[in-house]
Amino acid sequence: MFSAQFDAVIPVICLAMAGLAVMLAESFRLKNESMPLGGLAIIGLLGAGAASAFLWDRTATSFGVVTADNFALFVNLVLVAVGLLTVFFTSQTAARDHLPTGEFYTLMLFSMVGMMLMVQASDLLLIFLALETMSIAVYVLTGIRRDQLASTEAAFKYFLLGAFASSFFLYGIAFIYGITGSTSLDRVGSVIAAQSMSGNPMILLAVGLLLVGFGFKIAAVPFHMWSPDAYEGAPAVVTGFMSTGVKAAAVAAFARVFLTALEPMINEWAPVLWVVAAATMIVGTVLGVAQTSLKRMLAYSSIAHGGYLLVGLVAGNDVGKAAILFYLAAYALTNLGAFGIIALLGERTRANDDLRDYAGLWYSHPGLATLMTIFLLSLGGFPPTAGFIAKWYVFSAAVGAGYYGLAIIGVLSSVVSVFFYLRIVVMMYMSERDARPVPAPVTTMALTALGIAVIGVLYLGVLPTQVIDIAQDSVATIF
Amino acid sequence: VNGVPLLSIVIWLPVVGAALLMIIDNKDGQRDRLIRHLTLGVSLLTFAATLLLWAGFDTSQSGPEFQFVERLRWIPAFGIEYYLGIDGMSLMLLVLTGFLTPIALLSSWEGIERKVKEFSVFMLLLETAMLGVFAALDLFLFYVFWDFVLIPMYFLIGVWGYDQRIYAAVKFILYTMAGSVLMLVAIIGLSWIHQQATGQYSFDLLRLYQLDVADNLQYWFFLAFTVAFVIKVPLFPFHTWLPDAHVQAPTPGSVILAGVMLKMGAYGLVRFSFPLFPEAALYFAPYLALLSVIAIVYGALVAMVQPDMKKLVAYSSVSHMGFVVLGIAAMNLQGVQGATYQMLAHGVSTGGLFCIVGMLSDRRHTRLISEYGGIKKIVPRLTAASLIITLASIGLPGLNGFIGEFLIMLGAFRWDPRFVVVAGLGVILSAVYMLWMFQRVYYGEVTDDHNRHMPDLSLREWAVIGPLCAAAVYMGVLPNVFLKPMEPAITRIVQRMESREPLQVRLNPPRALGAISSNAQGPGDGLPGADRRHDGIPSNAEGRRGLAIAAVGQEPGPARGAR
Known about the structure:
The complex is a heterodimer. Chain A is mainly alpha-helical. Chain A is built from 19 helices and two strands. Chain A has helices spanning 10-27, 37-54, 70-97, 101-120, 124-142, 149-180, 185-195, 201-217, 226-233, 236-261, 266-289, 294-315, 318-345, 361-364, 366-380, 386-400, 404-430, 444-462, 465-476, and strands at residues 60-62, 66-68. A two-stranded antiparallel sheet of chain A has the order 1-2. The two termini of chain A are 27 Å apart. Chain B is mainly alpha-helical. In chain B, 67% of the residues lie in helices and 3% in strands. Chain B is built from 21 helices and two strands. Chain B has helices spanning 6-22, 32-55, 88-107, 116-135, 139-148, 150-160, 165-198, 205-209, 215-232, 241-248, 251-276, 278-304, 309-330, 333-364, 380-394, 400-415, 417-442, 459-477, 480-498, 514-517, 540-545, and strands at 67-75, 80-86. Chain B has a two-stranded antiparallel ribbon with strand order 1-2. In chain B, strand 1 (67-75) and strand 2 (80-86) form a beta hairpin. The longest helix of chain B is centred in the first third of the chain and has 34 residues, at 165-198. The radius of gyration of chain B is 23 Å and the shape is globular. The interface between A and B is large, with 31 and 40 residues.
């Protein structure tokens, strides 16, 4: 059947079509004509979401390299949520910041094409292609405010280091191909298992190179240097988008490669990843303490959250795999909500992301301050929010696999992280309001996004059962 | 009562009230009055509901261990349930919480001027969380409540507190959280052990009681749980957050903090640490007792030299809660009974002391003892009320503090008399610092002219201090009203411990769960210092299994103990 060949790529096609449509619309747009480009993006995202939901439990494959198993579809749905919230927030900030909306939505949609392909790919080469598609679009998004030096600088740094890391990744693939004669994950896995090449230095080198590539994309220590600069320099909506979308896609692909193809070597890579995960959690939280820019602070926090995700990966058991999925959903909603508020409070000439800018926010904007508090408490892992359940889930996986040490490092670093999340809360609630220009009122679209995020965060925190069950089902079928 | 989830109603009523408050529009404070009355009404209703629980509670020895049980599946994939139930000890703590919350609200009636709505919402959320802690029988649910308590308290201290409030609030939340998260790891570990033993995850406390945890994990798990609890108590040397939090918190915050939240730690020791890890608990009991007698004396000595009344009361809490831990460490009927009674008594008397300090500082805006003096003639009614509460706190016979301390010392004496000798010193010292403060504040000549025009108790303040004084007297005269419902519960807790022997082996840190199911006792090097045996301390079993006489009054003790 010819048509069935395309099943697994329908979500990706939806996004690509939307991206093309936005690009065409933008290029035929008259100078001062306004077009609902965000609407096109939303249609594309909803299409991708519907397609992902439709493909559930069907395990479709296309061309032998793209699979739509439940694991990928779960991440797809998270990505759709990320995309939708980003579009909602951008709809308010784009005009204020004079963002080129056409380019913005096009790049965003194309980067999401890369993300979804990366998640769905079952071949290392396709993962690389998808990773590059995603990355290049995100580099440009980072620097989309050409009038701002910081934005451009961030984009350039991100690009240089990212390109460097990509080459490591590609090199790793080359080694894998040289040793096993294939780039297909299934094939690589069976060859490694059959020939028991655990001790083979070539394969170790290949695994190490892949680890560098993935580690860079999820900003794992010691490959995290780019992320504070990139996150701080990029417009807040882009930071929210890349700190959740890129991370979700990269973690999902990371998990797929390491827990399928490289699963037979888990005893070799798990100790390395243990150290990386511990270092990521510690460095992310400890350096976060010293920050005074909110974006930078949340950049370090998102490094730390990458570490928690790695804990699930190190554990490598069923609980851990499902925990990664749940964590991605919880983290995406929470972090996007937080960055959304930062974006809404910014101004054209000034990002207003200094800690002092939040002084007395509770008195001037009680609603936004309350929402921000809920997001920060969720990032800090307090019940009854999504962040608590997510952390409990990954630490449960770690304890189940016998990694008590990692769980202890994780919980203690989350206490340290609470310290800097609370600094923001202290500013908002317990300091006097400076005479700051009051930002524009929040539009309905942005309010909808905040509503979705906060309801999601509380829903996952209070009634996580359904999503936990779905996450467990998702991993049961493929690994 | 059948079919009505009374316990859930008690717990969630304040949240419903908080939700109601949130929809009231109170932008410039024009509805403060309505909000205050509504909040008080909700908290009184909650108190009434806790009394209904008491009325429906079966206090006989043969009654079910946990009553008003409610079970709902919450996260079935991990065996996590919404599982509530109370025994006599929980019941009394629920009543205490219900009793103190309206009093705390009343004590702040005019003191809180900013953001009254938000203040009330946080108070009600706090009440729900505290009630939940005492009623949860699922460890996960318990942890959720336990951790959530921190958030409203953090805001209460940080927004409505005094000058150093931010420092105090952050210290409070980080300090207590650092202890709690390790408990979370231990809770997760327990659920995995249950999964390995039975194939199912469970956080059900009663099932986990039956779990045979390998020695080397018991050791670590006990420490993880106990550190979380003793930080909350707080036991020396983990008490340093308490003076800051107490002094900086607004009066209602201090009342709740001292009255209820400190009890959460002691409750945790009795409900979780000891019965879940009995062998480790017996091994560590002498250490706990040692720390608790240090706390008793140290807290008293430090309290003595405080110039600030609130700080004095805060350190007196350290001292009094030391008694509670001593009673728990003794782990015999009198000890634990005394400890739980002391928890209630301390809630009433220290809550009262903080209310009085709040009243004085409402009038004079200072808490320094030296600013007062001779005010007995100016505010005779306030002085009388303070005297009752002060004597109750010291432990004068006929008032509530005496019963608890007496039972604790009785229990501790039957275990190891040496602890009692030191603890007895604490009783004397508590009389010294409390009476000395009373003397300096109320007696003598009026030294400061500002004091000459202080108003005496207002009607609202009568409503605050009156019930507290009444409770102090009532608890002192008729202790059995409170002891009897708790007795079956405490008997069961002590019995769970009786057949156990303390850990004997030195341990390795847990590495993998593989070691859990096998009862292997790693001979390794273990902890430095943990190797010291306590030769001087008599076998626990001996002191604990002995005669269990009737606690106080005519109620016969459990017959099985008398052999």
